[in-house]
Amino acid sequence: MIDLKKANVRWNKDDYVPRKVSDFESKPAAGEPREIADTFLKDNKDTLKISCQLSDLRYEKISRSLGGCAVLYQQHFEGTPIHGGWVAVHIDNKNQVFLVKNDTVPIDKLRTRVKAKKAAALPENEIETTVQNFIKGHGTLNTEIEKEKVIYPLKGNLQSAWKVKFGTENPAASWILFIDMATAQIIEERDVLRKLNGKGKVFKPNPVVALNRDDLNDKNDLDQPEFNAAYKTVTLKELDNSGNLKGPYVDLTSTKNYAKAPDGKFMYTRGDKHFEEVMVYYHLDTTQRYIQSLGFSGDKGILNRPIKANAHGIPDDNSYYDPSPKKKDLTFGDGNVDDAEDGDIILHEYGHAIQDAIVSGFGQSAEGSAMGEGFGDYMAGTRFSDYKKGDRKLRVGEWDAKGYGPGEQCLRRLDSSKHYPEDMENECHVDGEIWSACLWKVRKLLGRKKADTVILESHFYLNQYADFKDGAEAIIMAEKNIYGGKKTSGLTKIFKDRGIL
Ligand SMILES: [Zn+2]
After folding, report:
1. Distance 285 CA to ligand 1 centre (A)
2. Out of 99, 268, 304, 398, which could bridge 275 as a Cys pair, Cβ 3.0 to 4.6 Å?
3. What is the whole-number distance in angstroms between the Cα of residue 372 and the centre of ligand 1?
4. Which architecture, in CATH terms, is 196-497?
């Protein structure tokens, strides 16, 4: 028998049960670990204040390690396992018990507090509905659903609950839910899939900005020493363990001969075709996380699913978002400078995907499609402004533009002075500068975070035929709804000066 006075003890203060006992005197015992642990528990049941029958501690398994092994028992009550009710007896290589962990729940507590006895339990089909509703918001079911009754300690009560296990894909997850048997409410949800944080090299957002140089030359994707200082090593979050660039918000596996790295190390330079895949993964994943940090998460999420992206989809110098119902994916082209080598282009295309996620078919009018281009440019500008110095903050696609000649500064700017309607040219990218210039002024007035929030929110007030005037009014409404309308007059002035309101 162990002497608690001569041992190191940590107590469970609620139940006054010793929950961890170590550093006690112990002699080598004969027999298999299971026999040693059984005998130890029999001898020390009272000392350890284990108040249930030992037959209610059901042997579960032995877990072996270098220093010995642990024999694990799960506590049951009237045949039902108690979530978290475990006993572990640890035995070293000399067959001495050196540690015991005791998370049993006292039997009198179980007798008085196990709630929702059989009579109160809801029929199983209500539990089924809860599970199905949960799955609807979390991808597609791709396993059997396993169910088991447990007793779940919750806020001092012991609730009868279903422990439900299943897997989903898009996004990949392995779920354990605990569902209250009396109310069919989820009391705990956990994704136990082990996700891998990978590593990769990227430009933030492109080499022109990273090196602050205008004299760089693509040289047909050649690795050149002057680019070395432009690479940043970054974390690629929550890769799904397939060894691919596939996570909760981005999926690069539609790229031909896509990158594979089971160790999660995607360390390429621009001469390697896989470099652009890492660029797309990193910049889209971090942008989606940023959008969520603004509050657009959970049931208010925007595009919080793995969008498919092909980093080398076409040989042309062009990229696109395809809004057709079965696609809704991104394609980047390789003409001149690879488009996915410039973070600005990646963000611009994601802008189209965001708008389509909020308003399916956004941009049916000429002005709407100009708003699409302007919003994409704004997305690139607002995301990467911190990396850009001086006038570069106002330029979009500086690296991609080098494909048109060494003297080209950028694809488009965020500070156009063009006025509506007389400066409209009926080309959506050109006219988009009218819209992006308004958005950039909104950002100056509200600050980055508030402007990004208001501009994203404003899309929820639009439909697919929205024009500039609708867009301007939606921004004013969004600021009113979220921040109380303090900037209504300032916002109105921005759009009045431009000729839109
Ligand atoms: Zn576009």
Report:
1. 19
2. 268
3. 7
4. Orthogonal Bundle (1.10)
